[in-house]
């Protein structure tokens, strides 16, 4: 897809190629800037979505109760404005995404197996593709595996503690139910007595 030639402001004649490049220079951004813009756009989208949720939560439907039409129309206008800005943000995100994809078309994709440490079911390391790994990469994998083992031990310990906590909570609930029933019976006897 080619861009149309830039037209000078005082003529209508296309600009020479050198001036076109100078005019387009501010628009050339690197991938890091695009990613930052994309990240900010996603954060704006999340913020707008939360604001829309807040507006919808506070909006009262006209279901027979007294409501003020002006307030309802004001909130409806705010909601429509947020939806419009949300659609603009999604279009902006789409443009950033397309620009990033266009910039990355010439790059060779790195398979995810090389980026994520992988352990097979039997516990042995996946060494098929490790011929390209350097010594430091294998040391990093060992460290990651050790950290993962430590995390698994902590998760098991937390699971056991959670299980004990659930049991204690169940016991407390039973005691509270028994006390409630006892108080109910005492109050019933006192009511019959008087």
Concise structural overview:
With 194 residues, the chain is mostly helical.
Structural shape: flat
Please report the number of helical segments: 5
Q: Return residue spans where pLDDT drops below 50 for at least 5 consecutive residues.
A: 1-12, 20-26, 128-133
Instruction: Output the structural class.
Output: mainly alpha
Could you estimate the helical fraction of the residues in percent? 55-70%
Total count of strands: 0
| Average pLDDT metric | 76
Our measurement of the CA-to-CA distance between the termini, rounded to an integer number of angstroms, reads 93 Å
* Largest β-sheet summary: none
Percentage of residues in strands: under 5%
Radius of gyration, Cα only, in angstroms? 32 Å
The SSE string, one letter per element, is HHHHH
Describe the fold and architecture.
This protein is mostly helical and 194 residues long. It has helices at 17-24, 31-58, 69-103, 112-115, 135-193. It contains 5 helices and no strands. Helix 2 (31-58) packs antiparallel against helix 3 (69-103). The radius of gyration is 32 Å and the shape is flat. It starts with 16 loop residues before the first helix and ends with a helix.
